[in-house]
Amino acid sequence: MKAKTFKFLALLMVASMLLVACGTDTPEATEAAAPDTGDTGGEVVETEEPMADMGPITFAGYDTSDIPGLDPQIAEDVTSINYIENLFVHLTNYDLDTAEIVPEAATSWDISDDGLTYTFYLRTDIPWVYHNPVTGETTQVERVIDEETGETAPAFLTAGDFVNGIKRACDPNIGSYYSSVIAPQILGCADVLNYEDPANIPAELVDAIGVTAVDDATLQIELEFAASYFLSMTPMWTLAAVPQWTIDEFGDQWVEAGNIVTNGRFVLHEWVHNVRRQIWRNPLMPADMYGTGNIEHWIVNVIPDISTGYALWLNNEVDSSAIPDAELQAHLDAFPDETDQIPDLAVFYISFRMTKAPFDNVHVRRAFSAAFDRETFVAEVRQGQGLPMIHFAPPGIFGAPPIDEVGVGYDPEFAAAEMAEAGYPNCEGFPQVTLLGYTGQSTLNWIEYAQAQWQENLGCDPELIQIEQQPFAELLDATAAATPDSDSPHMWTLGWGPDYADENNWVGDVLWCENAGNRQKRECNEIDDMIVLAREEPDPQARIELYRQIEEAFFGPEGEYPFFPIWVRIAFTARHSWVDRTPALFGGEQYYNWTLDWDAKLAAQGQ
Description:
Layout: E1 4-5, H1 8-22, E2 58-63, H2 78-87, E3 92-94, E4 101-103, E5 106-111, E6 117-122, E7 129-131, E8 138-140, E9 142-146, E10 151-154, H3 159-169, H4 179-182, H5 189-193, H6 203-207, E11 211-215, E12 218-222, H7 230-233, H8 244-250, E13 261-262, E14 266-272, E15 276-281, E16 297-302, H9 306-314, E17 320-322, H10 328-334, E18 339-352, H11 362-370, H12 374-381, E19 386-388, H13 412-421, E20 433-438, H14 441-458, E21 465-470, H15 472-478, E22 491-496, H16 507-511, H17 526-536, H18 540-555, E23 563-575, E24 579-580, E25 595-596, H19 598-604
Parallel strand pairs: 1-18, 2-16, 20-21, 20-22
Antiparallel strand pairs: 3-4, 5-6, 6-12, 7-8, 7-13, 9-10, 11-12, 14-15, 15-16, 17-23, 18-22, 18-23, 19-23, 24-25
Helix pairs in contact: 11-13, 17-18
């Protein structure tokens, strides 16, 4: 029997058709898609109401790392974005079944005829709340409404809170990767983000950012150009409202349990770093925003590795789990009805530092890419958990070429010829280089496979490819654009998961030379001119053709190859039958729509 597969291709086709029809609509995490962890879920099933005396309905999970952060404007990884999705209400949301943009804080919106002004009409009944982790009580916070008298009133989410969040996202001093993602679109945001003296940004420059609270219930956002995809960006966490008064009081510590003020379907009950975290349902959320799920407490413990987590799953101690590579086939044989194959559209690749010899030579980069057999890798090393990729953007992303078109992919003859053209025939005279991967056996299998491929197809002795592994956060630091070449690896593993379903989120937000996160240290050229042209082009068909040309310029026979894509992840997940969820392709996981058959879970645990 096969594992159950979510409606991957059907949903992607729906999303693509919606985008072609409107030119905009319709995800982290996200910057650098993280390696697999156990914070996962399963397929939709019918459930029954639990017995009243069995305690709160609790999801039990695990993760192999801490939450990097809960600040909406700073978060850039999948784990953080998942929690922010549940702790904060965003401007809009994604429908899990159709991938359409749907109301959330905004009940409706207007777009001006020239496509430059978006007006959002907001709910006025979403409270800002404080959760006391000692007493477990959640209360609505008070906001000062008169500075002179100190008069306060119950705090509800307003357009001004969104203005605070969006202007904060434009501030270079917060050090956010995603500032560079939203800045090109929003009027005046890039002027602030790129100001030459970040410590002394003129107030009038901040005031000129194109985001305005017309009144408490009306938010207006002005764009630099008629970005046809902007609506699909509005569910992003980076644009979320924030409680500025709490940030002012606690500084960087405002997101800690006992300090944080939120407005989402869950509240932060506990966050013991690198040990455990708990989020509990927000009892003050408007009933129609509660979500379709029934989970009241969400508890995740940090453990050493996936193998330990999978053992907990086998013992019914956690509700879902990633599956260790060594256990995968045995699991598929034993638990076909408790296994899902879940696409997340994360594309993984090996990246080059283009300013560090020998990968400053384009022929070397082309050779290393074409020498990698993606189909065999996916079939044997990944055990079928993905699809081979020969260009960057995967299916379901507006503007992405068909998966089997555009890009050289695996071509050992081409690889050998390029290596000879670079001056290293059969790898003769090639220097020793480093390949850095993040920690975990799956990544080790990946980089050892690459090492063997370059030996087989290029003649490079494995000793020439020194492989290392570091924790994910440390890898990001080691490969940051600001890291000197002498301290950075020659190559590294990384991935990108979508934030919105448009090619600009791929070639624009990852490979554009002016991105703050230009890890490859690309120099600007005519490809970047095409990226800007495609971003601003109003005609959907013209944009599709431009993106095809851009992908060809990066990954075709004459391509630049700042990195080389290898596969799009469609991972197997162990999921107990009492878990009900629909996975999110874009943005964070909507835990508020997950359901547990509580009686079935307790019965399996012998309670």
